[in-house]
Amino acid sequence: MPELSLNDWVAYALLVALFLIFIISYFIARARQKQGKAQAEAKTRLDAILHRSSERGEGIVIGLSEGDGARLGSLAGLTGLQTQAHVFRHSLISDVPPKAMAGEGSLALLSQQLNAGTYDGAAMPELFRMDSSALAGVENYAYLAGLLPELSRPNLSALVMQGELNPELILALDSAKRQGLDTVVASSSLSGQAASYLADPESALGEEAFLNQSTRPREKAGLDASLITLKIIRALIVVGLTVAVLLHFLGVLP
Amino acid sequence: MKKAVPLIVAVLSALLVMVGIFFREDLGGWVSVVLNWAIVLSSVALLVVLARLLFMHIGYITMGRQGFIYSLVAVLAFLFTLIAGFLFGVENPTFLKWIAGIIRPLETALLGLVAIVMASLGIKFFYERGWNALTISFAISAMVFLILGLGFLQAIDFPPLQRVIHVIEGLPMIGARGLLIGVALGAILMGVRVLTGVERPYDD
Fold first, then answer.
1. Interface touch B185/A167, C-beta < 8 Å
2. Which of A18, A131, A201 sits opposite B56 (nearest CB)?
3. A-B C-beta contacts closer than 8 Å
4. Chain A positions in Cβ-Cβ contact with residue B48 (cut-off 8 Å)
5. Which of A41, A21, A25, A35 has its CA nearest to residue A216?
6. Do A135 and B53 touch (CB under 8 A)?
7. CA of B156 to nearest chain A CA: how many angstroms apart?
8. What are the DSSP calls for A203-230, one per residue?
9. Interface residue of A78, A111, A183, A232 to substitute, partner B, most B CBs within 10 Å
10. B189 vs chain A: nearest CA distance in angstroms?
11. pLDDT reported for residue A24
């Protein structure tokens, strides 16, 4: 085990604090759910899109991670999969079923497996179609080349993108906007966030890229616990940085 | 049981890889073995998905679906690349030259398109959101960094000006660090959610 510096200890302490706060918040959220005291669900933009697409019988295109960022183990890609599951659960009998486009082989397979499970869990496996998830392309531009034609399909209502997305995603966003589609973007890459913010002021920034939505009790409690944990950890970091700056000026810290 | 097995496998694999980061030497290369399995599985997954994609396009062609001509181009390009790769080898300079000769111009064209779309969205930014604190600061920072990017100011030999430029050039880094801390926190939390089985992206 390597020797640890002060920075390492601070990082480990933060990790342990984050883990403990999350676990405690999660159990509190689950207990509140069981007692029926859970907060009324806030209506999000994704909810509005899902309602609208159901009413009008229109489809949704879901963009998962692209290029190098979609490699096996990309956490942002996994978050995108959760969002995909949420969209599919709400569009099981839609006239135009949603379609997910992934930028990597294993992500595309996981996406297909998840869709099959969603339809199976809803006791309608016959509605599952293999092309509900597809590989768009394995490089950034190949991914765009695969995604852009999907946006030209008729009867679409929205483009939902979540994962590790590069600034090139702006072409897909622009194309979607020109065709009157709603857009929701959450990219975990900084350049992707900057580009998407230019096109969509409500795109996710910072840690928001890893938040997803769910109506399932376990996942909903996990999301609530994540939000509480983020608030506390952010406060701890701000206080910690302020104290560190003060100690630095007082000559205590180098 | 059906739900428990994937959860146990996922959590144990994640813990093993995490422990391996701290005790790499003590584990005697076991982490590398697990990571190699992941790479092999990922490659097989890519093969399966590519085959699925190919059959999907062949299906579109046989059905005569609207726009099937693009599927035809995709299938022909795929087969051409595959056969040429098998015949000449993927390291063959001529093969690489052919591939690069097709891909690079297309990528460059898309890159040019990205630049144009970004510029047009930059203009639309003011048109749609009007003049407020955000748009004004965006405009000022864009102007300042465009001027700094030209490099004329850096050439002036005036130490106080250089110090000011140095401070200004550090500003984007401060903003980026703020966002990076957020991204890191989000990623860690997502990891904790997967590790504790609260989120199961592999299961529905």
1. no
2. A131
3. 162
4. 105, 109
5. A41
6. yes
7. 31
8. S--GGGGG-----SHHHHHHHHHHHHHH
9. A78
10. 7
11. 92
Average pLDDT over residues A145-162: 88
Question: Does A245 or A37 have the greater pLDDT score?
Answer: A245
Contact across the interface for B118 and A167, Cβ inside 8 Å = yes
What residue in B sits closest to A228 (Cα-Cα)?
B189
Identify the closest residue of chain A to B188 by CA–CA distance: A15
Domains of chain A by residue range: 7-38+218-249, 45-214
pLDDT-derived band at A159 (thresholds 50, 70, 90) equals very high
Residue-wise burial string across B74-88, b where 16 or more C-beta atoms lie within 10 A, e elsewhere: bbeeeeeeeebeeee
Per-residue model confidence (pLDDT) at position B76:
93
Q: What is the pLDDT of residue A69?
A: 57
Q: Which of B23, B52, B198 comes nearest A222 by C-beta?
A: B198
In the prediction, which pLDDT does A165 show?
84
pLDDT tens-digit series, residues B17-64: 778 877 777 777 777 888 888 888 888 888 888 888 889 889 889 988
Considering the four listed CATH numbers 2.60.120, 3.40.50, 3.30.420, 1.10.1760, the one that applies to the domain covering A45-214 is: 3.40.50
Arithmetic mean of pLDDT, A239-244: 90
Evaluate if residue B113 carries a pLDDT over 80: yes
Please state the φ and ψ torsions of residue B90, each to the nearest 5 degrees: -75, -10
Kindly give the pairing relationship between strand A133-135 and strand A99-102: parallel
pLDDT band with cut points at 50, 70 and 90 for residue A61: very high
Q: Are A198 and B38 in contact (CB < 8 Å)?
A: no
pLDDT at A106 over 60: yes
Alpha-carbon span B14 to B11, nearest angstrom: 5
- Here the tokens at position A43 are 């209506």
Nearby residues of A115 by Cβ (< 8 Å), 6 or more positions away: A84, A88, A100, A128, A132, A133
Taking an 8 Å cut-off on Cβ atoms, the answer to whether B192 and A135 are in contact is no
Q: Where are the domains of chain B?
A: 150-196
Contacts of A125 (CB under 8 A, 6+ apart): A116, A119
Q: Which residue, A66, A209, A46, is CA-closest to A140? A: A66
What confidence tier does A2 reach under pLDDT thresholds 50, 70, 90?
Answer: low
3-class secondary-structure state, position B38: helix
Of A15, A78, A170, the CB nearest to B114: A170
Binary contact (A207, B183; C-beta < 8 A): yes
